[in-house]
Design goal:
- By secondary structure, the protein is an alpha+beta fold.
- It folds into two domains: 112 residues, Probable inorganic polyphosphate/atp-NAD kinase, domain 1 (Rossmann fold, 3-Layer(aba) Sandwich), CATH 3.40.50; 129 residues, Tumour Suppressor Smad4.
- The chain has six helices and 16 strands.
- The strands form three sheets. It has a six-stranded antiparallel β-sheet, with helices on one face. It has a six-stranded antiparallel β-sheet with strand order 12-11-10-7-14-15, with no helix packed on it.
- A hairpin with a 4-residue loop joins β5 and β6.
- α2 packs across α3.
- The longest helix is centred in the first third of the chain and has 14 residues.
Length: 274
């Protein structure tokens, strides 16, 4: 195993400087060379350029949004994620994170001894007819263009017409994203190791419109009949004028998360979304 760790920290989080200092001290004490980044795209690019001397892992310090932003910015700039991620949680939820700073040394010890697994999550791809492509780890959101407006979106799954959805918008999420915006909008929790795409309406103006679970290789068709905005992981923003649309499908781009203990997603939901 290479004894090098790249650190990416969300400096806007209270206490992040202190946690970074403690984390790098722990890593150095355990024989790791440490390099700290404030630019995620640069960090992931360096992982590739290091080739055979790539870091053993990337440690993110922050909340779920920190990891999402880091991955999304890199992948949507064409940078492949080849190095597994170990999250130290500073946020409220922390589904992506594996440990706190208090448990980091023990987690790092387990990692060093090979007592861990890699949870691999594949990403979603949104494709526009003009050739533009966007990638998301959690979800894509097609949303109304104004606060007081209503979105009108024709929805299809693998060529089958689902119908017109009137409301605030539609979330298309991965298994990992099922515990994000989708769950708040009434979507189901997806059990681990089940590859699906969820389609969850946001505040639909109908009692008969329900969330849909489709196979991961399905093609979800979003055709806007009113001006909408598309968000990729809540970050990338794309205008979707009325009469246009895009498709969402699973893709081969993936991200690996280091896990040193058995994760019970249902327990995490009880504890962290209570």
């Amino acid at each position: 195993m290479n004894h090098k760790i790249f650190f990416y920290v969300n400096v806007t989080k209270t206490g992040s400087d202190s946690v970074l200092r403690k984390a790098t001290e722990i890593a150095a004490r355990n024989g790791y060379q440490c390099k700290v980044y404030d630019d995620a795209s640069c960090m992931f690019a360096d992982c590739i350029e290091e080739d055979e001397d790539e870091p053993a892992c990337i440690v993110t310090i922050g909340g779920d949004g920190t990891t999402l932003r880091a991955v999304s910015h890199a992948v949507n700039q064409g940078i492949e994620i080849i190095t597994p991620i170990l999250g130290i949680n500073l946020g409220k939820i922390g589904f992506f994170s594996e440990t706190s700073i208090e448990g980091f040394e023990e987690t790092l010890r387990q990692f060093s001894e090979g007592d861990y697994t890699i949870e691999t999550d594949r990403m979603l791809k949104a494709s526009f007819k003009d050739g533009r492509e966007f990638f998301a780890l959690n979800d894509f959101l097609a949303y109304k263009s104004g606060f007081s407006s209503v979105s009108h979106i024709e929805l299809g799954v693998d060529g089958a017409d689902v119908g017109m959805i009137h409301g605030d918008g539609i979330i298309v999420s991965s298994r990992l994203g099922s515990t994000g915006y989708s769950i708040s909008a009434g979507g189901p929790v997806v059990a681990p190791n089940l590859d699906v795409i969820l389609v969850t309406p946001v505040c639909p103006h109908s009692l008969t419109v329900r969330p849909i679970a489709a196979a991961f290789d399905s093609v979800i068709e979003i055709n806007a009949q009113s001006d909408c905005v598309m968000y990729a992981d809540g970050i990338s923003t794309v205008q979707v004028p009325a009469g246009t649309g895009f498709t969402v499908s699973g893709c081969n781009k993936q991200v690996g998360f280091i896990r040193t203990k058995n994760r019970n997603v249902f327990r995490l939901i009880r504890e962290r979304l209570n």
